[in-house]
Amino acid sequence: MTVRRAGLLVAALALCLWPASGRATDPSPEILARGKYVFATAGGCGCHTPPDAVGQNAGGQKFEVLDGTVYSRNITPDAETGIGKWTDAQVANAIRRGERPDGSRLFPIHPYKYLANIADDEIEVLVAYLRSVKPIKATVPARSLRIPVPPLTVPTSPRVAPREGLERGRYLAGGAAHCADCHTPRRFDGSPDDGKFMAGGPGPEGSLPSNITAHYETGIGRWSEAQIARFLKTGVKPSGQEAFSLMRVVITGTSAGFKDLTDADALAIARYIKTVPPIENKVR
């Protein structure tokens, strides 16, 4: 093996193994801006900053699920009550695989089945941004469940995020934006009923997300791509009604949210949503 080939192999292995390596130091303003934008595409992780939270990402949102009670965790870089002692790899695994550093599983109210689709190049900057947020000492109550945490199949994360077009929309909607997490009804154990993919129904916190498949009568088949994109950024429907419940949360976000999507990304998501097969399911 030549020296040049060996060097290329080492470089490739280093890239493939991220984020198994240690913590990055002193990220540039550009990296933090990119990370904040990925945070925006995830709705600003609004569940981790409920209205009564002591600060951004301090956790404490209570979720009454069919088999118990769970709370959103403190994801600030506080060393005692947050993620301050976690490595970059451990933060990435919690986000994308639902795995805590001790090996325990997060309850799938955390949408790791979808966040697993965040690409390596975007999870890296997202972790850097999460570390830049003010650390807050805030203890969150332990979860109380009557059954074990359900195991979910986690897809392999892509290496690089698509940059434009329909594939960009599919990537965002099926990843950071986790549209299906709320708009696909859940089974009794909290797992999604993929037979009703995006067809709406009972969702987190007793919400009733809409059917956003292309069904003309019970979904949003009559909405144009431009109308969907406008709704994602403003929360205003073609009828003039405004979004509420968890949709309002992810649009508003915290330090960033869907309102901060670029026009191109909002339109890409809209284009993808228009391709979701129609399912007849009247929600409201």
How would you describe what is shown here?
The chain has 284 residues and is mainly α. Helix content is 35%, strand content 4%. The chain has ten helices and three strands. It has helices at 3-17, 29-41, 88-97, 112-115, 120-132, 165-173, 179-183, 225-234, 245-252, 263-273; strands at residues 62-65, 68-71, 144-145. Strands 1-2-3 form a three-stranded antiparallel beta sheet, with no helix packed on it. A hairpin with a 2-residue loop joins strand 1 and strand 2. The longest helix is centred in the N-terminal third of the chain and has 15 residues, at 3-17. The radius of gyration is 19 Å and the shape is globular. The model is unreliable at 1-22 (pLDDT under 50).
What's this model, at a glance?
With 284 residues, this protein is mainly α. It has helices spanning 3-17, 29-41, 88-97, 112-115, 120-132, 165-173, 179-183, 225-234, 245-252, 263-273; strands spanning 62-65, 68-71, 144-145. Strand 1 and strand 2 form a beta hairpin.
